[in-house]
Amino acid sequence: MENQIWHGLILLGNNGDPTAGFMQIALLILPIGLFFYLFMIRPQRREQLERQKMLDTVKKNDRVVTIGGIYGVVANVNKDANEVTVKVDEATNTKLRLTLGSIARVLSEESAKP
Predict the structure, then answer these.
(1) Which of 3, 46, 48, 101 is 20 to 30 A distant from 40 in Cα terms?
(2) Per residue of the chain (114 residues), what is the pLDDT tens digit?
(3) Angle at 59 between CA 56 and CA 61, to 5 degrees
(4) Nearest residue to 86 (alpha-carbon basis) of 110, 107, 113, 64
(5) Which CATH architecture has domain 59-112?
(6) How far is it, in rounded angstroms, from Cα 68 to Cα 42?
């Protein structure tokens, strides 16, 4: 008896149109894809463009903060080698040679003053 019930339920489930299931799934996936694009991909792309613009404008004597939290002044920029030299101590003339991507941000004139 129980076997007949399961057999009947399986037959009832197979009567639908197979393309209708695909359309329903497509209508669910489309808004999810749009959501990911609008709220994840687009803002990330905008941040990447702003960061690249900031790195392209780095020049000598800019006050910067590295991704490691080190404050310093740019002593030399070599964009061909993707390299920047940052002076971290005026008294001992200590310099660090870093990749350009290791600069977290360029400090403005207002925030650079203690």
Answers:
(1) 101
(2) 566 666 655 555 555 555 567 788 888 899 999 999 999 999 999 999 999 999 999 999 999 999 999 999 999 999 999 999 999 998 999 999 999 999 999 997 655 555
(3) 155
(4) 64
(5) Roll (2.30)
(6) 27
The closest alpha carbon to 103, from 89, 81, 85, belongs to: 85
Tokens representing residue 42 in the block: 């687009």
C-alpha to C-alpha distance for 30 and 32, rounded to whole angstroms: 5
Dihedrals phi, psi of 71, to nearest 5 degrees: -90, 145
Q: Where are the domains of the chain?
A: 2-54, 59-112
Sorted by sequence, the CB contacts under 8 Å of residue 106 that are 6+ apart come out as 54, 57, 58, 62, 63, 64
CA 80 and chain centroid, separation: 24
